[in-house]
Amino acid sequence: MSDFLTIMSQHPWLFTSLAFVFAAVIGSFINVVIYRLPVMLKREWQQECESYLEEYQPAAFKLLTDKQLLQPIDKLPARFNLIVPGSACPKCHSAIKPWHNLPIIGWLLLRGKCAACQQPISGRYPLFELLAALLVATLAWNFGPTWQFALSALLTFALIALAGIDIDEMLLPDQLTLPFLWLGLAANGFGLFVPLTDALIGAIAGYLSLWSVFWLFKLLTGKEGMGYGDFKLLALFGAWLGWQMLPLIILLSSLLGAVIGLSLLLFKGMQRNNPIPFGPYIVIAGWVALLWGQSIVSWYLRSL
């Protein structure tokens, strides 16, 4: 292993290329997570609600059952998780052959169409694969074969999945956010990114900062401006990068949100009341801070 790390350190282009290919493969699985995890969570929530009604509101449960209002939330197979069933065309449900499932290349070989029914396959699949590959390759070039690279690559995979789910479902699942918050604290227990004290303060300050904005906005307008998942996502970045990076992340994500929000209003005809997920902007700002946060802050302080 030490010989392998030495070779990778001496040949950064080789290490970056391997990281690109590996991340593209993981990117294919990220597409699965983005689609399937929300379905799994919705099923779990439905089962919990039905169990509650059956135990504590039997009359209501019987009424809903008699009127056949308690129906499955989807028409997918009963056994449905991140592994089973295998990948299939969403239109004709034909199984996707392994060579057609190759990251990026498979979609190009098929020319963006299902081999069985010739219906279009969304371009978001190769897009997420390419995004994962490019981001992790950038990490590999900057960090080299280190623990910082390995952990930041894991974080990047989780962040891409969180952004994709939030775009689709307006949801940032605790099943992804909280484990990576704890992983950030654990990593900084060894001082891999920032001292542990800064990480602890960062996690607390990250949560409380957006929580405070949420309640202030709600008191002033009577509306909820963001979800609790956003608080936890910022706390995650505080745990990884320390409290010092939080102002930068909040500023960058707010600027991104304002620019993209105005663009959607002006060019896409989106209504002002339409909710826009804030999680992807936090993800972008946090990832930028992970790599270049110190340089950006130093440049800003020098320019004062």
UniProtKB/TrEMBL annotation:
It is a multi-pass membrane protein. Residues 154-262 form the Prepilin type IV endopeptidase peptidase domain. Its EC number is 2.1.1.-, 3.4.23.43. It catalyses: Typically cleaves a -Gly-|-Phe- bond to release an N-terminal, basic peptide of 5-8 residues from type IV prepilin, and then N-methylates the new N-terminal amino group, the methyl donor being S-adenosyl-L-methionine. The chain crosses the membrane at residues 12-34, 149-167, 176-194, 200-221, 233-266, 278-301. Keywords: Cell inner membrane, Cell membrane, Hydrolase, Membrane, Methyltransferase, Multifunctional enzyme, Protease, Transferase, Transmembrane, Transmembrane helix. The keyword Translocase does not apply. Residues 21-143 form the Prepilin peptidase A24 N-terminal domain. The keyword Transferase applies. It is found in: Cell inner membrane; Cell membrane. It holds the Pfam family Peptidase_A24. InterPro entries: Peptidase_A24A_bac, Prepilin_IV_endopep_pep, Prepilin_pept_A24_N, Prepilin_peptidase/N-MTase. Coiled coil: none annotated. It comes from the Bacteria. Signal peptide: none annotated. Belongs to the peptidase A24 family. Plays an essential role in type IV pili and type II pseudopili formation by proteolytically removing the leader sequence from substrate proteins and subsequently monomethylating the alpha-amino group of the newly exposed N-terminal phenylalanine. This is Prepilin leader peptidase/N-methyltransferase.
